[in-house]
Amino acid sequence: MEGRVSGVAQTGKDRNLWGLVGRESQWDELIVTLLGYPRQLTRLLELAPVALAVADRQGRIVAANLPARQILGHLRGTVHGLNPLSGAQLYTLEHKVLSAEELPLIETLTSGKTMANYEFIIEYRNGDQKIVAATARPVYSSQGEIRAAVATLADITDRKIAECKLGNHKRHLEEAIGEKT
Prior knowledge:
The protein is of the alpha+beta class. The protein has five helices and nine strands; from the N terminus they run βββααββαβαβββα. The N and C termini lie far apart (52 Å).
């Protein structure tokens, strides 16, 4: 069964990332090879239509495309070796401070499990905030060892605000209907 999700054609375990590689294992091998070449890895990520960031085994971001750098708040310079917690404070949607271990990239590196649609808040130094959804998965070497993690990031602030407004409007309408009956 074939499908297309976020620029990735899928046929069972085969995936074609924008025509660059065939199998997921080939994608992993490409990332592992390029870990030592952050500029080339960033160039590859720039081809993606979504925000992508790659962290090495130590949890340092080694490459990110422009949409990811915008979300992470690092528009100038390199992100190579960047600690994901630098330059911003991260919170859960309940406003609990996130520790490094709770971040999708770090959790994926330590557990080996994919984290899908993990939502959190980024508060930048200037006080601005964004609500972000992240999906992270481990990147394996050909020997089956976790060598890195790759994450997609999406700014879902506008959607969350709209959901909140819609919920408030719905409650207001329910109260108005309840008062009339």
